[in-house]
Known about the structure:
single chain, 8-stranded parallel beta sheet, 6-stranded antiparallel beta sheet
Amino acid sequence: MNKIVIILLVTFISASSFSQSIRLYPTNWWVGMKMNHVQILVHSDDSGFSKQKVRLSYPGVTLGEKHVFENGKYMALDVTISGEAKPGLVNIEFVGNGTPTKVQWELKSRRKGNGTEYAQGLTSSDFIYFLMPDRFSNGDPSNDRVAGMRDQSLNRDSIFLRHGGDMQGIINHLDYLQSLGVTALWMTPVIENDMPRRTEHGYSFTDHYTIEPRFGGAEMYKKLSDELHKRGMKLVQDAVYNHVGYYHFMMQDPPSNDWLHQWPKYTNTSFKDQPLFDPYAADADKKVTTDGWFEPRMPDLNQYNPYLNNFLIQHAIWCVEEFGVDAWRIDTYIYNDMKFMNECNAALIREYPKMFMFGETWVHGVINQAYFTKNKFEIPFKSNLPATCDFQTCLHGIQPALTQKFGWTEGVNQLYTVLASDLVYQNPYNEVIFLDNHDMSRIYSVVDSNISKQKMGIEWLLTCRGIPQLYYGTEVCMGGYSNPDGNVRKDFPGGWDGDKKNAFTGNGLSDDEKSVQTLVKTLGNFRKNSSALKTGKMMQYVPADGLYVYFRYDDNETIMCVMNTSDKAKTIDFSKYAERTARFTKATSVISSDTFSITDKPTIAPWGMWVLELGR
Length: 616
């Protein structure tokens, strides 16, 4: 059985003059878990703490070995929870020179999901909406600032300061997300980021076991999870294994010198993925990729350390059980130790068989990307990651299709070529496809605010193979270039009282913005009931003169998608695609309800796209 690191925050003042703060992570564990051998990492303010003896008393729970570290403030305790153990408070005593210091560690009953399932995973039937809580909607102004936290900023006129959005604001607008056809919610991290600045994005953890109080804290996170599940929706958590924030205790007071990746002088990651799989790579280059820091304020964690390894794996399981998480998006996947990632992924799947993980793999090339997920390569390292964020279909597929002139290898031919390389994946339908995200220029700006191209991108997103992910505001043409990144992280219109434009109600939206939003609602909801678009096979034809045609189909339904990426109108001859059209007599637009006879030769406008349901 795997071991885990558990840490609970308790302050106890004994009957003697001796006092200490003792922290154990997580705050609790559960009875009936497959992972029942745990390793409690204990942190005290006392530099001689590791010399103390430990006693544990609870039926069904036994204390094994005690481990000590270079830093005398820490110890790690091996604990076994038997199948006979019942929920309750486990008494742990630390015995020094004076009266024993007592703490209690809770064993809970397992989460019941508020009457609904959790840890459901994701499939190609889902539609993910991705948002930044600080920038979506402010449902509770009372938590905009939290006393004692380092960042007290609150200024919506700045793209780098906090704006006040929170989880109550998201709960208030779940009806809106459902109206788009969305089935899953992914947020940037909701774990505490008690850093002095740039805390709006959430990627600099300072306490793994505290949910960001400015978002509403742990109880609000549980409420959001329950509200999603009541609606049949899913919760995706953004996981960060590679690094922490500078003010995390693992940086300020690490258990050992090898808890972080240490260098003689500051060394940044090269951001190069190739050394990890290059058969000619130098070990020195590989080390820089994985052990170099992401940036100076984000210390890089040493996942070769077995105690840290356990700490991170256990935290992942704790989050799923505590908050009812359904899927796991993994930040900066390629900079982690791949052996550790396989162990962590396997631990999650072992505990939650339906659990789904997809990793951020911002690389250049299908082979590069496929290395980090389940693939068909006969190579020494085999990843067990179910899927990745599909940067290939985004940056080297749909974006060139919308911005480049057609050529032998240019324009929509790039999209065709990327998809033709799907043979390397074990399951390309698991890939999470997208048009933009919080680190990239928004698609509306990428296409120079061209509404036809914006609509084409969305129609592709909701009809291509894979799991579609829509970045908040794309449905109402939010724009922005990523240099600096704050430009692509602006407030969702209508999320704050007094906003003149309100995308939730439609008030103040332009006709173009409304038309794009309506498109998402129409196609997103059609997709929810379309077996072909959710789980059907895909067939694509070689693009010709800017015209690209592909099909999604199964035994019950056939959808024909026609993209005209040319500046000229094109005539559609259905007989050219007889492999898929021959047994049908008509084609009906999913968007407009216009119907054509298969014997017709209709004309599609420049930069137009059709999504046609074929019928008899």
